[in-house]
Amino acid sequence: MKSMPQDDRDYVQALARGLSVIECFDEAHSAMSLSDIARRTGLSRGAVGRILHTLEILGYVRGGGRLYQLQPRALKLGYAYLSSQPLWRLAHPMLETAARDIGEACSLSILDDEEIVYITWVVSMRVVYDFVGVGGRLPAFCASMGRVLLAALPDAALDEFLARAKLTPRTPATITDRKRLRKIILKARRDGYATQDEEVEIGQRAVAMPVRDASGATIAAINVTVPAHRYTVAAMIEKAVPVLRREAIRLGEALSLVATSRPIRLRPNVSLQRSLR
């Protein structure tokens, strides 16, 4: 692990290391040993041990025998973000309306480096595919909402993303060719919506629309996910796009009326893990 530049005297490395330990837990790594955590974070066993001891005292982790797990207190970190953002508070009614009118699950996400993060979701009673909850993540390159959000980036930022992004296929249908993806994203920019056809999960398709603020900047994406056996791509677009466009406009108008101390920006965050390398 590399330390930050010597001239950055405001950087608190101990805090960054502590957050990296919290962030290394995920669905596939819900319980880990000290050695596992050291390997995933790139920190020494001694540093990880001290961090875990501190986090355990504060109630963020629990060490049951040789394995450590996050505790419910860790939810406070995510909820602090959600509760401070008007986007989360205002979006849910629009998603409920869209889900009711389309009859399928609707969600809203933002871009975080190479992934989209789900901010809120309204689930249809007919959902038959894996559920991604609030705070869940998907690779931006293959998700419909990710493509909408990437389409809003300047050309140079989009090219930089495509050059460095890990394009790991999730299904046999996942498009990983960088030139082809660029064409798909630029088409989404022209069309005003993006789709994915069984690229995230076999048996489901999705279409997404941008949510724009009063200045026209894309700040989030709203989508609907449908079962592939009930909808062709064309049928999905015909039914869902007008509804999503209507609700995206409503959400953008509502956001423009809310005074915020800090604007919500699309600019991708540099991941903590990368800053620690």
Describe this structure in words.
- With 277 residues, this protein is α+β, with helices and mostly antiparallel strands.
- The chain has 2 domains: 13-74, Arc Repressor Mutant, subunit A, CATH 1.10.10.10; 85-256, Beta-Lactamase, CATH 3.30.450.40.
- The protein is 44% helix and 18% strand.
- The protein contains 10 helices and 8 strands.
- A 6-stranded antiparallel beta sheet has the order 5-4-3-8-7-6, sandwiched between helices. It has a two-stranded antiparallel ribbon with strand order 1-2.
- A hairpin with a 2-residue loop joins β1 and β2 (67-70).
- α2 (34-41) packs across α3 (45-58), α5 (86-102) runs antiparallel to α9 and α6 crosses α8 (178-191).
- The longest helix has 24 residues, at 233-256.
- The chain is globular.
- The protein starts with 12 loop residues before the first helix and ends with a helix.
- Mean pLDDT is 83; it is low at 259-277.
* CATH class type of the largest domain: Alpha Beta
CA-CA gap between termini: 5 Å
Query: Whole-number radius of gyration?
Result: 20 Å
Strand neighbour order, sheet with most strands:
5-4-3-8-7-6
**CATH architecture descriptor text of the largest domain:** 2-Layer Sandwich
- Note poorly predicted spans: 259-277
CATH topology of the largest domain, anyone? Answer: Beta-Lactamase
Q: Can you identify the CATH superfamily of the largest domain?
A: GAF domain
Question: Would you list the SSEs in sequence order as H and E?
Answer: HHHEEHHEEEHHHEEEHH
* Proportion in β-strands: 15-25%
Q: How can the largest sheet be summarized?
A: 6 strands, antiparallel
From the spread of the alpha carbons, the general shape counts as globular
Give the mean pLDDT.
83
Question: Which structural class do you get from the secondary structure elements?
Answer: alpha+beta
Q: How many H/I helices? A: 10
Number of E strands: 8
Return the domain count.
2
Helix content: 40-55%
